[in-house]
């Protein structure tokens, strides 16, 4: 006798999944109409079932838009946070380790600088400014073409060790590319491993992120950014601020990164995805999802080690956005419902820009 119950159930599941993907595709197509950019990708994963919408005002190139690597800008910071959390889980560093002691043992620094820990750096509570004070004189003359490239790693470290005027660490939240960049250099010093290699070993390779990197790839594999008027801009050179904004990734790799946060302790995926049963990786993924501080009026804004953490009608959402000279990115996930949203666009942000609001709406308002 043939048992058809499993087959019938599987068919029903496939039909349901197909219907869900069709509905999601309609939602993405509608959302895309609100964004004006030469290239746009809106990608959603629901319990690892993916739906991707591509479009834009420019003619498509030989490489599909969802296969190009996009500059993430500040959306690189969750990668830095996950790296720190994994190194802590491995016992190689501690959140309360003092950055100056790891970077330059015995070097005389201001007492406030001496108190800055790795936790302060990653949570934007170090008291450091957004960028070093001496960054701007060299950056302003080339603000629209290459503001970071002339400020190398050793200068970032020197500026940190020589810092004087700053808020007392741990007393207030102030978003800082400077701080997260210092974190990157500190972890490299603590492990004796260059940042790019360390990130690959501890985060990119274990998660199977083969299309994610911190430098431009071969010709034709990277998305080209544009100014507001549509003219192309050169690829971003982050100089010494690599940890704060250098990651480049395809939208499909972004979904893989987000899916890992939604299934921290799960087995290897049948489609060849990463095996997330490594205890230190699972611990790190759980750690970066947990709220650690509140800020703002009536402490309404909640943050994890590395993600913004907001309420929504469908449960808390965790997200981060980023922008470069000519590109934008948005990453977010909703743990309660298994939803992940990755969005990329190749137009510089401007005041009337709808990109982040559109992507955020997909994350918070989609059932």
Keywords, separated by commas or semicolons:
35% helix; alpha+beta; globular; 367 residues; single chain; 8-stranded antiparallel beta sheet
Please explain how this structure is put together.
With 367 residues, this protein is α+β, with helices and mostly antiparallel strands. Helices cover 35% and strands 14% of the residues. The chain is built from 13 helices and eleven strands. The chain has helices spanning 5-32, 77-89, 99-103, 111-114, 118-122, 135-139, 153-161, 177-191, 195-204, 242-245, 251-262, 279-287, 355-365, and strands at 40-46, 49-55, 70-71, 212-213, 248-249, 293-295, 301-303, 308-310, 317-323, 328-334, 339-345. The strands form two sheets. It has an eight-stranded antiparallel β-sheet with strand order 2-1-11-10-9-8-7-6, sandwiched between helices. A three-stranded antiparallel β-sheet has the order 3-5-4. A hairpin with a 2-residue loop joins strand 1 and strand 2. Helix 2 packs across helix 9, helix 2 (77-89) crosses helix 12 and helix 7 crosses helix 8 (177-191). The model is unreliable at 1-15 and 264-270 (pLDDT under 50).
Across the major sheet, the strand order is 2-1-11-10-9-8-7-6
State Rg.
21 Å
Oligomeric state: single chain
Helical content stands at 25-40%
Q: Uncertain spans, ≥5 residues at pLDDT below 50?
A: 1-15, 264-270
Task: Tell me, briefly, the overall form.
Answer: globular
Q: Tell how many strands the DSSP assignment holds.
A: 11
SSE sequence, one letter per element = HEEEHHHHHHHHEHEHHEEEEEEH
Largest sheet properties: 8 strands, antiparallel
Arithmetic mean of pLDDT? 91
Number of helices: 13
